[in-house]
Amino acid sequence: MSRLKTLGKYAIWVIAFFIFSTLISYIGLNARYKNIEPIGEIPGGVKINLSQATKVNGRIFGEVTSTEGNDLNGKYLRVDIFSKNDNFAGTKYLKLDDLTINEPRKFAIYFSAENIEHYTIDILDYSEQLKDEEIRIRNLYKEVFIDEDLKTTAIIALLLVAMFA
């Protein structure tokens, strides 16, 4: 019976360590983000909730609201990011479709570029030339802009490699 108790204690310690390391990793990664500022004005109907970057990646969270006076359906949201000394680092286009009037729609932009400190946001009207530009830019900066932030499983895998390497 004492071996079973010892095995139970080890299981509890492993679970506690897993929870502790996941929590510390989450806090450690999010503590490294610093706020980045927009250059110029944010267009009407766009609200930025959070814009942060580390030395190697970043994120911009916001909301787009289409109103009767400012219908944004079918338009594009263009985000340009800049590093120190205002060096251009990349462009991301988001197509604004199926917006309901006066209902905010959230968006998230993730990027992996070094030392980003500023960004600009513009709203552009749809055109065939813009559609071709979006495809060209998406292919050009596919390593810069990513679909989502680091996954928890990737963080855990990095921790395990670091512990046992």
Q: What does this protein structure show overall?
A:
With 165 residues, this protein is an alpha+beta fold. The protein has two domains: 2-31 and 153-164, no CATH class; 35-150, Sandwich (Immunoglobulin-like), CATH 2.60.40. Helix content is 34%, strand content 33%. The protein is built from three helices and nine strands. The chain has helices at residues 2-31, 128-140, 152-164; strands at residues 34-35, 37-38, 46-53, 58-64, 75-83, 88-96, 105-111, 116-124, 145-146. The strands form two sheets. A five-stranded antiparallel sheet has the order 1-3-4-7-9, with no helix packed on it. A hairpin with a 4-residue loop joins strand 5 and strand 6 (88-96). The longest helix has 30 residues, at 2-31. The chain starts with a helix and ends with a helix.
CATH class of the largest domain: Mainly Beta
Count of helix runs: 3
Distance from N terminus to C terminus (CA atoms, Å) equals: 35 Å
CATH architecture of the largest domain: Sandwich
What's the number of extended β-strand segments? 9
Q: State the share of residues found in helices, binned by percent.
A: 25-40%
Given as residue ranges, the uncertain stretches (5+ residues, pLDDT < 50) are none
Profile the largest sheet: 5 strands, antiparallel
User: Residue-averaged pLDDT, rounded?
Assistant: 84
Strand order of the largest sheet: 1-3-4-7-9
Radius of gyration: 21 Å
Question: Can you tell me the number of structural domains?
Answer: 2
Please state the overall shape, judged from the principal axes of the Cα atoms: elongated
Order of helices and strands: HEEEEEEEEHEH
Q: What is the fold named in CATH at topology level of the largest domain?
A: Immunoglobulin-like
Give the structural class.
alpha+beta
The proportion of residues in beta strands is 25-35%
